[in-house]
Each structure stands twice: as structure tokens, then as C-alpha cells.
Amino acid sequence: MLLLSVSPARATAKDARQKVAMPPMMQEHMLNNMRDHLRALQEIQAALAKKNFDNAADIAEQRIGMSSLDTHGAAHMAPYMPKPMRDIGTQMHRAASRFSRTAQEAAVKADMAPVLDDFSTLQRQCVACHDSYRLR
């Protein structure tokens, strides 16, 4: 098993991300949501590797897409987030739903390029938020 570590230069660099204050219970809830999003991204990638486009689409929509907002308690989390952070989150959920539709189409067309492009767009939203904000 390969273990990665943070480079010493990165570990000592000042963290310039904006800290978002939340009650501890909300922080844990958000961190759990983000860990589930990360697991979903891995499951999507595994499904894509097997060309199981319908499964990838279902995971994206149910776990990250617009259909997941109630499950993740997005309405309860939003008041604690700065507007730009909320906007990134909304774009992430929309990108997941777009990816889901593209993956469903790929099941018929067998064209990976649009699927990979939309998957990249989805991940870009995650990176944008994690590059800009932190909870702890």
C-alpha cells in the first residue's frame, strides 16, 4: 500500500484559505458530506473504468448532484457559508447533475470524451472550494 505524505515545503507554508466558522456539529456534518463526496468521486471513477456509465450517473446524481441537496442538509449548512463558497457548492452540485446526464448519454453513444470533460468540471469545483476555504 502506497502512503503519500505532505512535502515539507507544503507543510510549513502559511494557509491562506479563508476560515469558515461553524458550530462544531455543523463542521462535522460538512466534513462527513465532503468525505462522502470524495468516496462518490472514487466510485464514479471506478464505474467509468468499467464503462458502467449508468452506475456512474446514478452515483453522481444521488450522492453529489442536485438530488442530494436534501440528504446532505444543504439548506441548514448554507447560512454558515460565505456567498462565494455557497456559489462554488451550487456549481459543484449542478456539475454533478450535468455529469450524470452526460454519463447516461455515453451509455448509448460510447463516447468517453464528454464524460471525462464533465467529470473534470465536477472535480474542479471541489478543488476551487478546498483551495479557497477551510473549516479548521
Structure write-up:
Strands 1-2 form a two-stranded parallel ribbon. The protein contains six helices and two strands. Helix 5 packs antiparallel against helix 6. The chain has helices at residues 8-12, 24-49, 53-64, 74-77, 83-109, 112-132, and strands spanning 18-19, 133-134. 70% of the residues lie in helices and 3% in strands. The protein has one domain. The chain is mainly α and 136 residues long. It starts with 7 loop residues before the first helix and ends with a strand.
Mean pLDDT across the residues is 90
Radius of gyration, CA atoms, in whole angstroms:
16 Å
How would you write the strand order of the largest sheet? Answer: 1-2
- Helix and strand content put the structural class at mainly alpha
Per DSSP, the total helix count is 6
Oligomer: single chain
**Number of E-state strands:** 2
Strand content: under 5%
Total tally of structural domains: 1
Percent in helix: 55-70%
Shape: elongated
Largest sheet: 2 strands, parallel
Write the SSE topology:
Elements: H1 8-12, E1 18-19, H2 24-49, H3 53-64, H4 74-77, H5 83-109, H6 112-132, E2 133-134
Parallel strand pairs: 1-2
Kindly summarize this structure in a few lines.
The chain has 136 residues and is mainly alpha-helical.
